[in-house]
Write a structure and sequence with these properties.
Strand order of the largest sheet: 1-2
Distance between the termini: 37 Å
CATH architecture of the largest domain: Up-down Bundle
Order of helices and strands: HEEHHHHHHHHH
Largest sheet: 2 strands, antiparallel
Shape: globular
Helix content: 55-70%
CATH topology of the largest domain: Glutathione S-transferase Yfyf (Class Pi), Chain A, domain 2
């Protein structure tokens, strides 16, 4: 929306408080996921599908590549992210950022929040992470998946000015950015250094310099949020570094 200079009205969903699992949100998205877009009496779910919808209704600034092979590449990047990276990122986020804050809740309240998660597999994974933190056994594989993601990007980016799907910025780049950004914010910047992944780093800097970043991210990331995340990541950093070393 920011790239297309569209205006929208925010309705922030507090994931940590479990608002996405409550009936009001489940009425909009039965899978209890964000984002949800409401447009012209139509309710849309799933980030990629929403992006393609916006690209269709606002074609003046096209964000899907023109060539069929590049359109396939863009969609394949999104599929790869869904299968390999999304859950891994979620589990690491839960371990580093959510778990210390959820630990302040009483046991009954926390159990209720977990029970409200509709996906039994996600519910079980989060229960394990809440119990074991960064010692949870699935987190090593989560780090490996993010490492492979970064390595795959490095092999795809054709030079310091390359993009993921063709010769221009596209929805593939938009789909990938939040996962690299989250990895760095979680203290996993060692997975994407200038020395080992110079093309990824060049791409990352170019993405962060786009004007749309101010509207779509920076204005939500206030000083209090930055301070809280920094404190939680610093506390987790020794175990994060051990995971990075163990999965190299």
């Amino acid at each position: 929306m920011a790239e297309k200079r569209l205006e929208w009205t925010d309705c922030i969903v507090d994931l940590l408080a479990g608002e996405h699992c409550q009936p009001a949100h489940r009425h909009l998205n039965e899978w209890a996921e964000v984002p949800v877009l409401m447009h012209d009496a139509v309710t849309l779910v799933d980030s990629w599908l929403i992006c393609e919808y916006l690209d269709d209704i606002e074609p003046q600034t096209p964000l899907m590549p023109l060539l069929s092979r590049d359109r396939y590449a863009a969609r394949h990047w999104n599929l790869w992210i869904e299968r390999e990276v999304h859950e891994a990122t979620g589990m690491l986020t839960y371990a580093v950022l959510a778990r210390p804050l959820l630990a302040q809740l009483d046991a009954k309240q926390l159990a209720g929040m977990l029970e409200a998660i509709p996906d039994a597999r996600v519910r079980a994974l989060r229960s394990t992470v809440l119990e074991m933190g960064l010692d949870a056994p699935m987190l090593a594989d989560a780090v490996r998946r993010i490492r492979r993601f970064v390595q795959r990007m490095e092999l795809t980016l054709g030079g310091p000015h390359g993009w993921l799907a063709g010769e221009a910025f596209s929805l593939a780049d938009i789909a990938a950015l939040p996962y690299l950004m989250r990895a760095e914010h979680l203290g996993l910047g060692a997975l994407m250094t200038f020395e080992d992944q110079p093309l990824v780093r060049s791409w990352y800097l170019r993405m962060q310099s786009r004007p749309s970043m101010q509207t779509s991210f920076v204005r939500y990331f206030d000083a209090d949020m930055q301070e809280l995340m920094m404190r939680l990541v610093v506390d987790a950093q020794p175990k994060l570094d051990a995971l990075v070393r163990a999965t190299a």
